Amino acid sequence: MAREGPVSLGAHEATKKNSVILRMSRFWRQYRKNRAAVVGLFLLVGVCAVGLAAPIITWHPPLKSAVGGAFVPPTMGYPFGTDDLGRDIYSNVIYGARTSLMIGLLAAGISALIGIFVGATSGYYGGKIDDLLMRTCEVFLVLPTFLLALIIVAVFGASINNIIFAIAIVSWPRTARLLRAEYLTIKEREFVEAATVLGSRPMDLMFSEILPNAIFPVIVNASLEVATAILTEAGLSFLGAGDPSVPSWGLMLNNAQNYLRVAWWMAAFPGIMLFATCLSLNLVGDGLNDYFNPRLKER
Which of 8, 65, 279, 297 could bridge to 85 as Cys pair (CB 3.0-4.6 Å)? Predict the structure, then answer.
C-alpha cells in the first residue's frame, strides 16, 4: 500500500505529459496544412532568434557613431553598409529586432489583459455595465488610433515605456469587443448554468469556466495585434516620436528618408526586416485561425 501513492502520482504525471504531447501533435498536424503559415512560423522564429543572438552575431555597438566611414555601401566588414554618421546599419537592424519584438509583445500583452477584463465583464454582466463599457470602446474605436497614440507619446514623452503604454491603450477595444461576443454566447450554455447552481462565484464563472472556452479568438487576434503594435511603433519613430536611446527600425527609416538617392541601403534593410516580421505574424495568425476555427478543424 505504501507504494500506491508514488506509483499513482507517476502515472498521473505520465498521463498529463502524454496529453500535452498529443495536443501539440494534433496542433502541428492541423497547422502545417497551411503552408504559408508554416513559412510564417519559421520566419518569425528566425527573427526572434536573430534578436536574441544580437550580442553574438554583431561586432559594432548599434548606436555608436563613426565605427566606419559615412555612407559606406554593403561590404564584408559592414554587411548592410553605414549611415550618414558612420553607424553600422547591420548592428542597428539586428538590435532593432529586439526593440520591435519587445514593444510588440508587451503592448499586445497589456492590451489583451485590458481587453479580456473589459470584454469578460461586459459580456457576463450585460445591462448598464455592458452599455457603459461598450460606449467607452466605441469612443476609442472612433478616434484614429495612430493619432491618439501619437498624442499620448507627445504628452508623456517619447520613452520606450510610454510608447508601449500608448499602443496598449489604443489597442484594447478590439480584444474587448471580440471577447464580449464570445461571452454572450457561452454564458447561456449548460455547463455555466450547472456551475452557477453549484454555487460558483461570478469571478470564478467569468475566468475559470467561460474564459478558457472563449479565449481562442483572442489568441488569434493577439498575433495580429503584435504586428500592429510593431507597425505603430515604427510609424511613431518614423515621425520622430520614438525613443532615440534604443535602436529602432522606424528611427532608421526616419533618418534614411533624407538620403534615399545617396544610400539606398539605409532604408532597404530595416524596411525588409519590418516587412518580414509583420508578414510572418500575419501568416502565423492565419494558421492559428485555421486551427482554432471549429469549421476548419478535423472532426
Answer: 65
Between CA 228 and CA 232 the distance in angstroms is: 6
CA distances (Å), origin 211, targets 65, 131, 181, 248 = 50, 21, 12, 36
- What is the distance between the alpha carbons of residues 275 and 231, in angstroms, rounded to a whole number? 9
Cell numbers 520622430: residue: 240
**Cell 554587411 appears where?**
79
The overall average pLDDT reported for the chain is 88
For residue 39, what pLDDT band results from cuts at 50, 70 and 90?
very high
What are the tens digits of pLDDT across the range 145-165? Answer: 899 999 999 999 989 999 999
H-assigned helices in the chain? 4-31, 35-52, 54-57, 89-125, 127-142, 145-156, 160-186, 190-197, 202-204, 211-214, 216-238, 249-256, 265-292
Q: What is the pTM of this model?
A: 0.88
Q: If we measure between CA atoms, which residue out of 246, 253, 278 comes closest to residue 158?
A: 246
